[in-house]
């Protein structure tokens, strides 16, 4: 497990500011265009693919699939497949995913709450 | 100021899950590859361009310039230029930027603190 920037071996704590730290790699999964929004949408709610896609405005099927796959690999999302016809697949957050969603959600709420001031700064 | 998804006019609160909400647009500035890391690096510290670049592993001059410009437009970053030779330019966070940095920082700390569990899920 390579967690640290090899240039900074003395620093034993993961650090997103370090180029090769794995925490930055994972950070990109949570903060890329759709990752955080998927975490938010699944917060305290289990959803099927189509419902999840409806909840996240503008996401394509392909991007949603890719994002779910990455978040599943990171241990944030649980994919539960029921062996019925037609196939029924449900997505939910693991406890780890709930933790990430909580922090991403706090950032999102803050941005929503301060949007007026930000748009004023932008002169819009 | 267009803050809301026109399909969801009944919802008067900004919502990052809405495709056309300006909060998602600003969210992308804070959570794109370098935006959040710049906010973190400037947290409680004023830095010149070169020092800021050294602090953020792997960022190119061009990407750092672009990111700073966007964050300045959003009202998160203050650029102070001293009229001396050679030119001396300092970057710091506005109170609004400190707010964004606080929430992005909480997410980053959480990811760093839970990295071991995440990497275990990834089988790495």
Tell me about this structure.
The structure is a homodimer of 124-residue chains. With 124 residues, chain A is mainly alpha-helical. The first copy, chain A, has a single domain, classed as Arc Repressor Mutant, subunit A. Chain A has helices at 22-31, 35-42, 49-55, 61-73, 95-113, 115-121; strands at residues 47-48, 77-82, 88-93. In chain A, a hairpin with a 5-residue loop joins strand 2 (77-82) and strand 3 (88-93). The first copy, chain A, is globular and about 55 Å long. The model of chain A has no long low-confidence stretch (mean pLDDT 91). Chains A and B meet through helix 1, helix 2, helix 5 and helix 6 of A and helix 1, helix 2, helix 5 and helix 6 of B.
Question: Could you say what the CATH topology of chain A is called?
Answer: Arc Repressor Mutant, subunit A
From the 3D coordinates, which CATH architecture of chain A would you assign? Orthogonal Bundle
Number of domain units of chain A: 1
> What gyration radius of chain A follows from the Cα positions, in whole Å?
17 Å
The strand order across the widest sheet of chain A is: 1-3-2
Largest interface: A-B, 56 and 56 residues
CATH level 1 class label of chain A? Mainly Alpha
Count of beta strands of chain A: 3
What's the quaternary structure here?
homodimer
Shape of chain A: globular
Distance between the termini of chain A: 46 Å
Strand content of chain A: 5-15%
Give the helices and strands of chain A as they follow along the chain.
HHEHHEEHH
């Amino acid at each position: 497990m390579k967690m640290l920037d090899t240039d900074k071996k003395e620093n034993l704590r993961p650090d997103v500011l370090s180029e090769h730290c794995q925490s930055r790699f994972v950070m990109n999964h949570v903060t890329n265009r759709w990752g955080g929004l998927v975490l938010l949408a699944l917060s305290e709610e289990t959803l099927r693919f189509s419902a999840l896609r409806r909840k996240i405005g503008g996401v394509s099927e392909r991007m949603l699939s890719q994002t779910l796959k990455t978040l599943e690999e990171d241990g944030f999302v649980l994919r539960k497949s029921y062996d019925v016809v037609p196939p029924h697949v449900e997505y939910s957050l693991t406890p780890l995913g709930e933790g990430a969603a909580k922090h991403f959600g706090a950032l999102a709420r803050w941005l929503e709450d301060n949007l007026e001031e930000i748009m004023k700064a932008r002169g819009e």
